[in-house]
Design goal:
Number of strands: 12
Shape: globular
CATH class of the largest domain: Alpha Beta
Distance between the termini: 36 Å
Radius of gyration: 19 Å
Order of helices and strands: EHEHEEEEHEHEEEEHEHHHHHHH
Largest sheet: 8 strands, mixed
Bound molecules: nicotinamide-adenine-dinucleotide
C-alpha cells in the first residue's frame, strides 16, 4: 500500500516505521523544520523494543507536499491542534480515491476531516501504542500496544476498505481491530486521556503513582460520567462501569508510563491537547445544557499550568 504519514513525531514514526518494515511504500510529511531536516538526512531513527533502527523514506516538509504522487492512504498523526492545517496542506496529495485515517487522541477529528474530504473516505480510530520523542531525530518505541479503526460512514466500499486497512496494519504488527462504531471507541479512549493524561500532567506523576492515591478511583468515575453524559447527547452511549475498568486496567499494563500530555507540558513545555479531551466535554456540555464541573475545572487548570509555564 502507498501510505503518506502526515505528522511524524513520536507516534507517526512508530506507524511509518512498522508499515515500511512490512514492505509498504511509505512517505512522511511533517511541519517541524528541525524534524524534517533530520528525516531527509537520516530517515526514521528509533529505538524499537531495545534495538536501534534506521529506515530511509522519502520525507517532505508540510510546505512542499508532493502533488505528483498517488497515495492509497494518508495517515494523520499530528497533535490535535495541528490537524486542520495539516489536512489543508495535504490536500494536493489526495486523488479521488485516497483514503484518510486519523488514529490520534482527541474527540471530533472526523468533523475536521469531513470539512475537506467526502465522508466515505474518512476513517477513524485510536491507538493504545505508546511512543516518545527523545530528540528531533530520534524516537523511543517500547511497550506493547494495539490500534482500532473503522469507516466513519456506514456502507460500501468503505467497509471493505476498512477491512483492507486492518489487513495491512496487521501484517505490519500494529495489532489492529476492526470497529463497529468508531465514535464510541474515540469517546472511550477520550476517557483514558481525560482521566490519566490530564491528572498525571497536573499532579506530575506516572500511572502507578496516581493509582495509589486516595481519590484516584472517585475522580476517574466522576470524569468518565461527564464524558458519558456528553457522549449520550451525540448518540454515543458509553458503558460507564466498563470504561472505568478499561481506564484502570492501564495501571497494570503501562503503570510506569508518563502520558504524552505529561511529556508535552511537564517535560517539553509544549501546549497540550486538553481542548480536544476534557475541553471537548466542557464546551459541548455547555452546548447541550449538561453540567460538567470536573471537565470544566480540569481544562481551566491545564490551561493555567500552560500559561504559568509560558508553554509554546
Ligand atoms: P508529537 O508531539 O511527538 O508529534 C506531533 C507533531 O509535533 C509532529 O509534527 C512533530 O514533529 C511535532 N513536534 C514534536 N516535538 C516538537 C517540538 N519540540 N517542537 C516542535 N514540534 C514538535 O506527538 P505524538 O506523540 O506523535 O502524538 C500524535 C497523536 O497521537 C496525538 O493526538 C497524541 O495524543 C496521539 N497519541 C500519542 C501517544 C504517545 O504515546 N505518544 C499515544 C497515543 C496517542
Amino acid at each position: 500500500m502507498k501510505v503518506a504519514v502526515a505528522g511524524v513525531g513520536a507516534m507517526g514514526t512508530r506507524f511509518a516505521l512498522k508499515l515500511k518494515q512490512a514492505g509498504n511504500n511509505v512517505t512522511v510529511v511533517d511541519g517541524w523544520q528541525e524534524r524534517v531536516a533530520s528525516l531527509k538526512k537520516d530517515g526514521l531513527r528509533a529505538n524499537l523494543d531495545g534495538q536501534e533502527v534506521t529506515v530511509k523514506v522519502p520525507a517532505y516538509g508540510q510546505w512542499e507536499v508532493p502533488r505528483d504522487h498517488h497515495f492509497d492512504l494518508v495517515l494523520f498523526f499530528t497533535k490535535s491542534m495541528q490537524l486542520e492545517q495539516m489536512v489543508r496542506d495535504m490536500l494536493p496529495a489526495f486523488d479521488d480515491d485516497t483514503l484518510a485515517l486519523c488514529l490520534m487522541n482527541g474527540i471530533g477529528h472526523e468533523k475536521t476531516l469531513e470539512k475537506y474530504l467526502p465522508k466515505e473516505r474518512v476513517f477513524l480510530g485510536n491507538t493504545m501504542w505508546t511512543a516518545q520523542m527523545t530528540r528531533p531525530d530520534h524516537v523511543l518505541l517500547e511497550d506493547d500496544g494495539t490500534c482500532e479503526l473503522s469507516n466513519v460512514e456506514p456502507g460500501e466500499p468503505q467497509r471493505s476498505q476498512a477491512k483492507e486497512l486492518v489487513k495491512v496494519f496487521k501484517a505490519a504488527g500494529l495489532k489492529p481491530r476492526l470497529l463497529d462504531d468508531p465514535r464510541y471507541s474515540v469517546f472511550r479512549k477520550g476517557c483514558v486521556n481525560g482521566t490519566l493524561n490530564t491528572l498525571c500532567t497536573l499532579f506530575e506523576c506516572n500511572l502507578t503513582e496516581y493509582s495509589k492515591t486516595s481519590h484516584a478511583h472517585e475522580m476517574v468515575v466522576k470524569i468518565v460520567k461527564e464524558f458519558a453524559a456528553v457522549g449520550a447527547k451525540e448518540g454515543v452511549n458509553l458503558d460507564v462501569a466498563e470504561v472505568v475498568d478499561h481506564v484502570e486496567a492501564s495501571y497494570d499494563v503501562i503503570g510506569a508510563h508518563y502520558p504524552s500530555m505529561y511529556q508535552d507540558l511537564v517535560k517539553n513545555n509544549r501546549r497540550t491537547e486538553i481542548d480536544y479531551m476534557n475541553g471537548y466535554v466542557s464546551t459541548h456540555g455547555k452546548k447541550y445544557g449538561v453540567a460538567t464541573p470536573y471537565c470544566d475545572l480540569l481544562t481551566a487548570e491545564v490551561h493555567t499550568k500552560e500559561d504559568l509555564q509560558g508553554a509554546q
